[in-house]
Every structure is written in C-alpha cells, then in structure tokens.
Request: fold
Amino acid sequence: MATVSVGRVRVSGETVLLVLVTALLAAGGAARFGGPVRADSLWAAADLVGLIPAAVWVVADLRAGRYGADLLALLALGGTLAVGEFLAGAIIAAMVATGRVLENAAQRRAGRDLSALLQRAPSQAHVRQGDDVVTVVIGQVRQRDQVVVLPGEVVPVDGALLGDGTFDESALTGEAVPVTRPASDRVRSGVVNAGAVVELRATASAADSTYAGVVELAQEAAASSAPVARLADRIAVFFLPAALLIAALAWTISGDAGRAVAVLVTATPCPLLLAVPIAVTAGMSRASRAGVVVKGGAALELLGRVNTLVMDKTGTVTAGRPEVVDVVWAPGATRAEALASAAGIEQYSPHVLAGAVLRAAERAGVTPLRAESVTEEPGRGAAGIIDGQVVQVGKLPAGLVMPNWARGAARRGRLDLASVIWVCRGAEPLAAIFVRDRIRTDAARTMRRLRAAGIQRVMLLTGDHVDNAVEVAGMLGVDEVHADATPAGKIEQVRATRAHGITAMVGDGINDAPALAAADVGIALGSRGSTAAAQAADAVILDDRIDRLADAVEVAHRTRRLAVQSAAAGTVLSLLAMLAAAGGRLGPVAGAVVQEGIDLIVILNALRALGGRTRKPHTEADALLHRFAKEHEDLIQVRAAVREAADAVAGGTGPRTDAIVARTYALLVERLLPHEYAEEHTLYPALAEVLGGPEGTFTMSREHAEIERLVRRIGRHLDESRRIQPDQLDDLRATLYGLDAVLTLHFAQEEEAYFTLDTTTASGDARHP
Reply:
C-alpha cells in the first residue's frame, strides 16, 4: 500500500488501515448500547474498509500467477458482508490489518544503496601535462594518460606503474598487508597508495577500470536477488482448497449459506497472517539483542534455512591486521634489543607493519630507542641513526651476505607463511621479526557452533594467496578453499554455490560487497568492516565478535522453527474449528471469537522467539577473564625467554647459555607459575559455574600440572652443578622445547575456550604469544 505523509511523519498504508478498522470496530462496540443498526453500520464499514485493500492484494497476486492467504481473507470478508455478520467481518478486518502491519515491519528490507562504494570512488585525478600536473574530472582521464597518485589517495584508474610503489589493496583483495609493486607492474583502481608519490600510465578509463566494475557487480547482484515467498502463502496453497471444500460441502449438505460463511470465518488465516510475522519480528529483536541487526524478515527466514556458508578470510576469520608473531635475533643480541631498535625507527613511519612492531614492543614492555635522521624508502623500509649507528628496518639491504642464523630465519618465515621485517645494524642483520594476520580467538568456537546449528558446508573465499588460505582453513576445519579470488570471482563462486543450496556470505570489505549482495543472505561485520559491505548485506554484526554469526544462525533457526510450529498449530486448530462450523456448532460471530482464541495461542507460541539461549553476563567470571587475558599479554617476555633458552642450549654450553637458562628459570618461577596457580585456584572455580561443572576445566588443570613439572625439571638441571654440563644438553633442550610447546598450546586453548566467554568485550582480536 502507499505511504501517507502526516506532517513530517511518513505512515504506511497498512498502519492507516489498521487504525481506521480498529476505530470503527471500537466505535461499533460503544454504539451497541445506543442501537444495533448504528453499531452494525460501523462494523459493516470496518468490514468494507478491510475488503477493498484485500481485493487489491488478491488481484495483484492473481496477476502474478499466485494465490495465498489473502484470498481466504477476501472470501471471509465478502461472506460476512453478504450474510449480514458485520461484527464477525469487522473482527476479521482488524486481524487482517494487524497481520499486514506486522508482516510489513518484519519483512522491511534496507535499501541496498551503494553510496559507500560511490563516495569512495575518486571524482578527480591528477594528470601530468608536460611539466605540469593538473587536476581533472575523473571522466576526462583516457588511456595512455600519465596519472599522478599522491600518498593516501585512491588509485583512480587501472594503469601500469612508471616506478616502484606500495599499495594497500585490502579494498579489492581483503589482504591487510600492503603490497610493493615494481615499475611496469599493473595496479588496479580502488587500491590506496600506501607509499610515496607514484605515477602510472592509464590502461583504461575510469568507467572501464576495476573499481567501477566492483560497483557495477554490486548493483547487478542486488537487482538479481529473488524475493522470498511468504511462509504464510506457502501453507495457504494447501489450506485454501481445504477451506473452500469444507465450506462448499457445509452449504450443500445443510442448505444454509451461513454455515459456509462460518466456515470461512473460522478459516480466516489469521494464525498464518499473525504468527509468522510475529515470530519473525521477535526473532529480529532477539538477534538485535545478540548484536546482529537483520534488515528484514525475509532475510531472517532465509538465514534459518541456510545450509552453506561462504566466508571471507581477512578481517572475518582473521583479525584483519598484521601482528608480530615471533622474533629471531642474532647471537649476542636479545629480543628486547631487537624490538627497541625496530620500534625506535618505526615510530616515525605510517606503514601498517610499523604499527605491528610498535604494538609488539608495547606488549613486551620495551621502550623504543631514540632515533635520529629517520628516512623512509617506499617498498624498502625505514632507516635512521640510533646510538651513532645506522639502523634499517624493512627488507634486507641489497648485496648483504646473510649469516647462518639469518638464512634459517628467512626459511622459517617461508615455512610459517609470515612476512619478515629485518632489523639491520650497520652492515649486519640484528633480528628478524615475523608478522602475520592471526586467526581470531573466537573463530574455531564459532565454526563448531555453526556446525551444530545445521550448517553443512563451509567455504573460505578470499583474495589472499592459496597457502595462507589453506593454512587458515585447516585450523578451522573449513570444507573448501577458493583463494586469489577477485570481486568478480567471488560473485561467480557465490552464484554457483546458490545452485546447490541456500547460501549465506560473510565478509567485511568493499571487495566483499558484490558477493554479499549476490548471496541468499549477506552478513557483514560492521565494527571494522566497510560501509559498502554493511549496506550490501542483509544482516550486520555490530561489534567485532565473529561468534555473533553463530548467535544469528541459532536465532534464525529457532525463529523459523517456531514460525512453522505456530503456523502449523494454527492451521490444525482452524481446521477443527471449520469442521465444527460446518456441523452447525459455531456461528460466524462465535467462529470469529474462536479464531481469536486460536490467534492468541499461536501468537504466544510465536513470541517464544524472543527467548532462547543467551549470553548471560557473569560479573565475577568476566572480571577474572579480563585480568588473566591481560596477564597472558604480560607473559610474552617469559614465553619468549623459554624459546631463547632452548635455542641457547641447542648451541652448546658456556657462560652465555648458563646465564640465559638461569634468567629464564627465574622468570618462570617468579612470574609464570604464580599466574598458573592463580588461574587454577581463582579463575577455574569461577568458570566451573559458567561451564556447568569442574569437568570443563579438567584438561587445562592437567596442563598446569605438566607446566609445573617441566619447570621443576629445569630447576633440577640448574641444581646439578654450577655450570650446565655437556651431558645435560639433550635432556635440558628437550625440556625447554617441550615447555615452549605446552605453553603455546595451553595459552591458545585458554584464549579460545575460556577468554571468548567474556560477555562484556569483543573477543575477535587474536591474542599474541
């Protein structure tokens, strides 16, 4: 129906209809005491007011080649008018109008406007003309033009680089780490210049470039998404013929048209028109309380039927920004020295990897050294003077001869699929800092919950390299991996997947917007995700917790189950009422009253969608989880010391090895063991109440015992003699490496299994070893 403007307020036609019908019904009730003719007139008017739009809806349905619940409502309204049962007709009109208002509210979908995509697209470009650089409207750029892109600007057109450049390509690939491209390499529009000024030769106009294609793909996908048939209509396909048959038989056998009208009154599909939208509306409210805004009832209904989930990687199942995962340093140096030197240089750099180094230094409690004369070469790194020596951070200088430890570090970076930031002092490498986008701590738990909720197939669809994608997929138990995917490739894969089942797509970047629009249900992470993704999606996760996705799927499945249950129960009860009316046991008014009772039953059942399992706050446990999560970060230095001691022992005996092992043992006794003891006697008892018993922490308690055993064994080694002897090396090395492995596993398990239970903060960011 049309929308009516009242002052500055826009009111839907369904709302106007409900208000008018309800007013006439109430006025007729009040007038009943003043004379039946006047009351009947008002009720007849209410019946007629409901009949007219119902006829319009039915005609529109029939022209579209379908029929459903509205046709039964039209027959009931017309029947009550024909036989003079005006009160029954007014009641039916009120119920039909109520159902329309609720359904309109439940199925209202947010427009998939692409304003974020369009706003991000540059409107101007800098073009070199001779010795001058002029700014022109983007549409004036032609192939072969020499385009200048300033730092931080979006590349306006596809082109070939005239010099080296560094670009943030996350808008198209989703990958958080900037990419350095050499001269003559192709660069696509939509990426951001993350380095110095670059120039390129345009290979396409703006209209024919990559970014324009992303916008067009999103528009096409939004336009091609098929509407979802109402659940009420699907049930009415079977219910309508049954109601008409019973009414016809009742009239034929009894010869009383009133019985046929009574059957139609009791057959009015109000349980369908009310229960389903009420359940969906309640489910949307429940999802909202869980931190997920679903933009329409159709989206929630579809989400309850999803069996295939397609997920982006970067920023969705990973933290979305690079973090330091390990540091390897030269013999004679230390981890703290390496981080302090690197942070001293990187504090002056805007590079995304510089931020990772600074965060690692802060977590390790390291103060950046004072650096002077800092310069940065895009694509190579930064350099400066620290304590009179040149310190370089980034790539290894050309021609530098790598010592053995550095060759091993480079190999480890390749094996770990990590980016390596080299710290060089003078002409010698000082340390290798490993950087990677880490998996979210709540991702694995979310995968398990999604499987339990009925998701049968999970696909990872990413623009990242295949090795990184396969590594993440293996950690999470994903069924399929499609890497190196472009926006066009993503949308084609989603469309192909839809042919095999109802598909949901989860993403956060601009490059995900077309795929989100193409999926049956698109779900965007709205906290750090792009506005374009949020606008193209059917549902938006408001904070940075990926486990909200499992909440949304669970709510959607429960909502759909209650909607179907309510509709089915209402249908069965209505059939029984129809049989009673056909036998003369219920007249039209009594049938309308009985129908109201049926409505009440199914509505109350549908409102159960407001409940369900919820993440209840546990004040004491949450406070402890905060505390111990912070302590995990504070223990980075201790865990790094264990690995350093193991490496030192692997190098043989000597005063340096003795000192490192002794210092490590002191850190373990003074800092690590008190932490583990506090967890065992403070955190775990509090978690037992949340987890339903002490069995939920038994495995972690066993690991505490193993950690303490290994620390005691290191202590006994130190007690054996004043200096570590050669015959101790094998066992001590095995003990230290074993402790490092147990600590890595134990901390990861606690962070995934326990720290994600914190109900008050986002748990999406990965913890750091």
About this structure: Residues 4-9, 106-115, 224-229, 762-769 have pLDDT under 50 and may be disordered.
